[in-house]
Design brief:
The protein is of the alpha/beta class and about 425 residues long. The chain contains 12 helices and 13 strands. It has a 7-stranded mixed beta sheet, with helices on both faces. Strand 6 and strand 7 form a beta hairpin. Helix 1 runs antiparallel to helix 8.
């Protein structure tokens, strides 16, 4: 009789894990207030509720200003426009991230330049960043990935040396702190997503944080069709904007989500510590990445682990994950592939002509780009555990580790 569930054995886990996203009476109360007010949209902008949320979110992350917007993709585009990125400017991005990080420069007719990631946390490698800087480089977008924080000390030092704008992509990092200061407030801008899988969610949505008043005013104007009115009329000229406002219905949900964030952050951190210690004790060959004492509050969107197939009799990571899924534990492997290899990153020079000089005619070709750590991570090494697995009990965590150990112990069945 085979031991592994993939071949007919008994799964370790058949009970569901905690459902997400979470909600309780707080969301209902805020939503009912907005519903009864009949002020459902985001205009006139900013609404009173939006102002309240923006202020609270920014303060929670140690920034002066918050600008809520339609999603965490347009937040990046808005930040790039607000700081003056022009057609043909180069913006350095990590290879291992969601496509929006690199698509944002394309959408403002700039040129994304891909650099490799650090094998210790899979965030942007500062040495690769510095090597990629040219006289056309104007900005850098480091991504805080999974439950790690990019090395903001080195990145800010390099950016200051070369006069670069820093836009932190914090889509995974609500509530995280680097050396006791909120992520997103270290650079010139911080960009957060409220998409349905995120640590705070309104289904869709995003926010930009900054401590630069003119940048804040420009962001507000850009997301409100280019309008200028108090409190965002203090800069010269007009900008061609978008309608990227967030509705009051979404802000209502986010008010409740922000109230829940501190407690959930502590809960996940507790379970993360328990998981990490138990995994280290019970399983060699699957290691949590991203240890850095400068991360003083850890936001855990995904626990990212490094898989070493030598400890699994040569079984490829994807086959290991298939067996683990049959045991009731659904982890990801290639959660992200290098952006330049993603079919979704269909950036064409006939639509975005500024790409032509660097990447040639047609679709941006990956043959000219090689980020070895990112490619190895995507196709061989990384194992991603989504945060709902840490929102339950210690028994849930024990079941996860038991399933991992079981697959490892019987991995010869997978050969």
């Amino acid at each position: 009789m085979p031991a592994l569930a993939i071949f007919g054995g008994t799964p370790v886990r058949q009970k569901p894990f905690p459902a997400w996203p979470e909600f309780d009476e707080r969301e209902k109360e805020y939503l009912l207030d907005v519903l009864e007010s009949r002020e459902w949209g985001g205009y006139p902008y900013p609404t009173k509720l939006t102002e309240e949320f923006q202020k609270k979110f920014a303060e929670y992350h140690d920034a002066r200003f918050g600008i809520a917007c339609a999603n965490g993709s347009v937040s990046l585009e808005t930040a790039l426009r607000a700081c003056g990125i022009k057609a043909g400017d180069e913006v350095i991005v990590p290879a291992l991230t969601w496509i929006a990080t690199a698509a944002a420069p394309v959408h403002v007719n700039a040129v994304p330049v891909f650099v490799d990631v650090d094998e210790h946390n899979y965030c942007m490698d500062p040495d690769a960043l510095e090597s990629a800087i040219t006289d056309r480089t104007k900005a850098v977008i480091p991504v805080h990935l999974g439950c790690s924080v990019a090395d903001m000390d080195r990145i800010l030092e390099i950016a200051a040396k070369h006069g670069l704008v820093v836009i932190e992509d914090c889509a995974h990092a609500h509530g995280a702190k680097w050396r006791w200061k909120g992520v997103g407030s270290w650079g010139d801008f911080g960009s957060f997503s409220f998409q349905s899988s995120k640590l705070m969610t309104s289904g869709e949505g995003g926010i930009i944080i900054t401590s630069n008043e003119e940048y804040a005013q420009r962001c507000m104007s850009l997301i409100n069709c280019g309008r200028k009115m108090p409190p965002y009329d203090g800069f010269e000229g007009f900008m061609l904007g978008w309608n990227n406002r967030l509705s009051n219905l979404q802000v209502a949900i986010l008010m409740a989500q922000l109230e829940r964030l501190p407690g959930n952050t502590l809960k996940r951190a507790e379970m993360f510590g328990y998981f990490k210690d138990l995994l280290h004790k019970e399983c060699a060959g699957l290691t949590v990445v991203g240890d850095d004492p400068r991360i003083t509050t850890r936001a855990i969107y995904h626990v990212v682990m490094k898989y070493d197939e030598k400890f699994f009799k040569g079984v490829h990571r994807d086959r290991f994950l298939e067996a683990l899924r049959a045991e009731g534990i659904d982890f990801d492997g290639a959660f992200y592939v290098p952006v330049y290899q993603s079919p979704l990153f269909n950036a064409r020079s006939d639509e975005w002509p500024m790409l032509k000089e660097r990447y040639g005619e047609g679709v941006l070709q990956c043959s000219s780009i090689k980020c070895e750590v990112a490619e190895r991570a995507a196709y061989h090494e990384t194992v991603w555990m989504h945060y709902p697995y840490l929102m339950g009990t210690r028994k849930d965590v024990e079941d996860i580790v038991e399933a991992i150990v079981k697959v490892q112990k019987h991995c010869e069945e997978l050969l």
